[in-house]
Fold these 3 entries.
Entry 1:
Amino acid sequence: MGEEKIEENLSGAELVNPYREGESKGAQVEQMFDSIAPAYDFMNTAMTLGLHRSWRNKALKGAARLIPDPSDVLDIATGTGDVAFRLAQIFPKAKITGMDLSAGMLKIAGEKLSSLPDEEKKRINFEQGDSLDIKYKDCSFDLVTVAYGVRNFEHLRAGLSEMYRVLRPGGAICIIELSVPANPVVRAGYNLYSRNLIPAIGRMVSGDSRAYTYLPESIAAAPQRENMTAILRECGFKDCIWKSLTLGAVTYYLARK
């Protein structure tokens, strides 16, 4: 009965699949990121003109103002570890856990980890896991982050509820997600870039003809700004805020348990 209710409530990006109908979105997302893992870091830098680092840093600084000294931090959809490694720098006393569905992405994160000094290695751990069924116990983390991942969730509310569950009381979440600019003039240029140039570059670099077409489709379909914060409140979070950067091309969200 519960599963049927979830299916009936699917909407937006939950209905946008990377590849084909008839297979769960989660399985397709895992396959997609395994496919593009070798090209992922290059494509992130190329398609954002390097701005993803600034976006990440501003969002995490906002999170640090809420939780200045966390002991345990979970980075969901950690990918190749970009956010996890930055979290380790911002919070030098914290234990950082990066979790991702894709073994291919985690392989690259592990290779990066192996090049770090031993003291840093001890604080960072990467594990494969499902964001809709997080393996950790209730109230395990002070801060949970997810960058460019929530629009890939097969069930958005289930994923957010799991994030809420593993947070300690008073803990915070930080979500970074690509978004569609609200200004119609800016949006026209954004649509031209995201729907034409990015898929073309993605096909050439990654060899996956669908992954970077799925990207703008899923961004456009995902809840954004006020709609996303409303869903966060539905899942139990409070003090929910959002801030858009670079003319609205990316938005980050902060909230507390």
Note: The two ends are 28 Å apart (CA to CA).
Entry 2:
Amino acid sequence: MRLLDRYVFVEWLKIFAISLGVTLGILVMHDMYSNLGNLITWGASFYEIVLFYALLVPTLVPVVLPISLLISLIYVLGALHRNNEITAMRSAGMNIFSITRSLWVAGVALSALLLWLNADLIPTCTERSRTLYDNINFEQQLRNAKDANAVGIVKQLCFNNRRDGRLWFMNSFSQATNEGRGARVSVFGEGGAEKYRVMARKAVFDDVEMCWFFTDGKEIDFDAEHRIKKETVFDKKYFKNFTENPRIMVLSMRRVKDLSLFETKTIIDALGSHSARESLPYLVRWYSIWASSFVCVIVVAIAIPFSVSGVRTNPMVGVSKTFGLFFLYYMIDNVLTALGGRGIISPLAASVIPVVAMFVFALLLYRKAM
């Protein structure tokens, strides 16, 4: 590495480390404001609290890494610009790429790091931190509750299993005991007509038999015209073909953007059809996680031309344009995500178009700056 490359890289790295630490600290403090009080109230030990935040920090990296990179690039390049160091380098016959080569390497390395984190570490940390948080909550509820079925309640649980043609609804579901109250399951045939319906006071997932059984219920069969053909009342009945995993059913009730990569893939597989409307938001989420890994390269490509604009331009103009452009990028990304989730455009296009469009635009700006 040349002396100049080391100089630019070290100056950037110092600011990047400070920016990353400060941004992470702010987000951790924000989470502490929301959740630390709950953990203490629920009786979490010091070890559990430390472990929770140790698992939480990696999940914040995809948010803070691009922001910290953008801030550090604008600060360092702006300082070089104000001190006329970039002008001196260009006067010595160096182009913009020669001056910022080390920053490009850093951007590519950070994108590779983010890709690995998204594919491996972050999903694991997301799921373990959520499980730890829920378990502490459930333990506190178990200590105070008279009925274990009142612990970890999910109200109005709905799940559409298109792969097996079953539509579930429960008035309430306990995550602690895998027991639902006020259950109804509609089973559909190949043509989309309802074949039969199971209604019961209680539905329980048997983790030994790996299926559901219902108590105090009835089974209603329908004919081809959807008229009631037969009603069967039962006290308790196992349905061996009802194998839906309660964890997947609960995950489907969470916000899509809160799901990890592994959880998103699990729900996509459970829904069974990539063309199903219920699958579309999860497919957009799946592709977006992968596409977002390359945002660090886009940050470098955008920040450099705006930050090293000519000496006659106020550096703050370039800074404002950079932040404005990234605001526009996130607006476009949100709009296309909504369109992809509704099936107006394909999930892959909704995830890739913002990244590709911004990267092409950034390269045009970069070429002009050179």
Note: The mean pLDDT is 86.
Entry 3:
Amino acid sequence: MPDTDVQTRSAVHDRLVQRHFRTVMLVMTAVLLATALTALCLGRYELTFAQVLSVLLPGEFDGMEPTRIMENVVANVRLPRVVLAILAGAGLAVSGAAFQALFANPLAAPDTLGVATGASFGAVLGILFGMPGMMIQVMSLGTGLVAVALVITISRIRETNSILMIILSGMVVGALFSALVSLVKFAADPQDVLPSITFWMMGAMTGATKASVLAGTPMIILGLIGLWLLRWRLNVTTLPADEAASLGIPVKRIRAAVIIFATMITASAVSMCGLIGWVGLLVPHAARMVFGANNRFVLPASMVMGALFMLVIDTIARTALQTEIPVSILTAVVGAPFFIYLLRRTGGIAG
């Protein structure tokens, strides 16, 4: 009887947690959609909700015929940027949550394996040589993948694949590519190229176009789907190797898959909008504060919360002042106080 009571209470608790999760996720998704619609309205050329919807849903509103200017502003300028903000925010947040779970390190972020700095090197190199936007994105993706390949190669030098070796290798590779980025900035024309590189390094979505977003979206979507499918298994990646082997859990394969999917997301996001910090570090902690440490809930919550956070930040960046504010500056301004709040509330890091 006692065992039956415990099982009953556990089953009731699981149902309550799942119900709470579904309710909060539905609310956050609704808020995200409303925020996206609001973002399409805001800007120097302000539009009403009806005007935006008449562009998005042509023929559905009698007596409301969108003008050429309205169509251009919504479809070609703001919509690609809103989509990019949602994808980048969701991707960076989920990558951060996956890395924190994989490495059992609350300070892990999308750049733990040097992916972000590696991808940024390819991008600034493309800017230095005056390449078109699509080629800059391709180079960024390529160098991001090279960074991960270097990390994996270095971590296996002593025939070990421990998490500590991977993290240390990521720090070394990140430092190497950071130095290479500084070298490119040193060689760049200070009157023309250097300002472009500096602004891109601060994170910006001004260059978002239909073509660039469509080119970078597949890798982010594929990475998000992969991490979504692995969210159940991330809880067991911290088990000792022998214990996991006795349970028949392929921990090494899971770790490799997580690293590959998170790398794809990070490299693609960096290639489209530059280096954006704090999102992958803070959003997963906020998700754990709401739903606990179960990655089954943390990863989907991080996806929606990261998208909402980045969309709000980008909307503020382009509408608060006459000139656009770099996104990474705003994420740091918001992120640092929130991180201090986490430290004071938890006595450490939320987990």
Note: The radius of gyration is 22 Å.
